[in-house]
Amino acid sequence: MMFSLTMLPPIAFSLYYEDHSWQPFFQGFGITLLAGILIWLPVHRSRKDLRLRDGFLIVAAFWTVLGTFGAAPLYFTEILSLSITDAVFESMSGLTTTGATILTNLDELPASILYYRQQLQWLGGMGIIVLAVAVLPMLGVGGMQLYRAEAPGPVKDSKLTPRITETAKALWYVYLAFTVACMLAYYLAGMNWFDALCHAFSTVAIGGFSTHDASIGYFDSNAINIVTIIFMFMAGINFSLHFFAWRYASVKHYMKDPEFRAYSFVLIVVSILVIFGLFQYRGIENPEQTLINGIFQAVSIATTTGFTTENFALWPAAIPVLLIFASFIGGSAGSTAGGIKVVRWLLIYKQGLREVARLVHPNAEIPIKLGAAVVKPRVVDSIWGFFSVYIIIFGVMLLAMMATGLDQVTAFSAVAATLNNLGPGLGDVASGFMSLSDTAKWISIVGMLLGRLEIFTLLVLITPTFWRY
User: Fold this and answer.
1) What pLDDT digit, counting tens, does each position of 289-338 carry?
2) Could you give phi then psi for residue 79, rounded to 5 degrees?
3) Which of 433, 439, 445, 436 is nearest to 104 (CA)?
4) What is the model's pLDDT at position 292?
5) How far apart are CA 148 and CA 133, in angstroms?
6) Torsion (CA) 428, 433, 437, 440 in degrees, nearest 10
7) Given this model, what pLDDT does residue 167 score?
8) pLDDT over 90 for what percent of the chain?
């Protein structure tokens, strides 16, 4: 019922720009509101406490159900002429902040449609569930179970404030402040207010949707490119670090955080490799543009944002593959980024170093540390479990994609783009997913959900253990 209200702002944009596209949003609002009322009425007097198991179920239901109902306005818009599959794909891509699209001629679409796509990404960025955690306690329902089920990263029990409601609100305040700051920066850099708002939504959410087919490259502005780089980098950092910076007016803790240091190191290395490759390929005719484009694309793909300044799939063969591989690392846990997350790779790396040390000192007790804190063996085990399941799912999805008739490059990058919530790929999906079959699109939709819910949250629902006890 609350989600239906998000379909009303596009109506205001439609009336303001007089593009006569408000009716699909009103239809979507009505259907979603009615469905919510029908579900809510029979149980509205229930006051049972939520268990952790309920949290998993509600989180999965929120993303799948809201992503599906979010497709209603897109399906009802005649100018788009979308099938159910295409409408759900676009909606789910927005809400999961994947950024893969099946739409073309974005520059010709009504402002209401363009705004709605960006709004979906913004809502999905910090997580609708975190918003629900802040609101549900007002309805007499506890929220900690939801937060544990949705919060990304291996350490899910840490709270920024004593009460989970205050935590959720604090994260949303930081998220909102970043969005406003990003919008103002875009406007000052040369965007009009509409593009500034829409791109702020997708930048802070690390989504990648744009109001133009050429993405950020449409503006052909180094100032806008630099603003985008800065906010993509900031959005890929654990938002709890931003919260502490805001609360204590200090930035010292950033460099003390091992994940932040690893995250920055990865982006610097990838940027250097991309820039070096571009100089090798293009020479030194336009060094400033090559430098900015190289950094932009490295940060955009490595953080799984998916903005582009030019078609990176046409760059020398090693660079596009390097960028796709960088998306497997992704951003920090607790950020709006996708991918496996930097902290997981960092702990896998430290585990590898420990195993090498054990070859020399078989009987040594060597703890794995993040900063000064010793990481519990249970956390390391869970990360290896996650990594193993991720590889298996990736392999199964890759084979399924190839079974639909896709070539290896297209299938591999399509799975990476959806499972890592990245967006753009290589081969036939370099410019969008519109050419894929319906079967391949539904596989992609499942990949987006698995990536956004960090695999286990969704997989736990199909295990007999979950339903047995």
Assistant:
1) 899 999 999 999 999 999 999 888 888 879 999 999 999 999 988 888 88
2) -65, -25
3) 433
4) 93
5) 10
6) 100
7) 73
8) 56
Residues of the chain with pLDDT under 70: 52, 128-165, 469
**Tokens linked to 23:** 């009716």
Tell me whether residue 353 is exposed, middle or buried, using C-beta atoms within 10 angstroms of its C-beta: 0 to 12, 13 to 18, 19 or more. Answer: exposed
Task: Mark residue 126 as left, alpha or beta (left: phi above 0; alpha: psi -120 to 50; beta: remaining).
Answer: alpha
CB-CB contact of 339 with 264 (8 Å): no
Interior/surface letters 40-71, b for 16+ CB within 10 angstroms, e for the rest: eeeeeeeeeebeeebbbbbbbebbbbbbbbbb
DSSP 463: S
Distance (Å) of CA 91 to CA 69, 88, 365, 462: 8, 5, 50, 24
Residue count of the chain, please give it: 469
- pLDDT for the residue 71: 95
259-265 long-range contacts, CB within 8 A, separation 24+: 259/332, 259/333, 259/342, 259/343, 259/346, 259/370, 260/332, 262/342, 262/343, 262/345, 262/346, 263/236, 263/237, 263/331, 263/332, 263/342
Gap between the Cα atoms of 434 and 437, Å rounded: 8
> CA dist 361 to 160, 204, 364, 366, Å?
39, 46, 5, 10
Give the pLDDT of residue 469.
Answer: 64
Specify the 3-state DSSP secondary structure of 374. strand
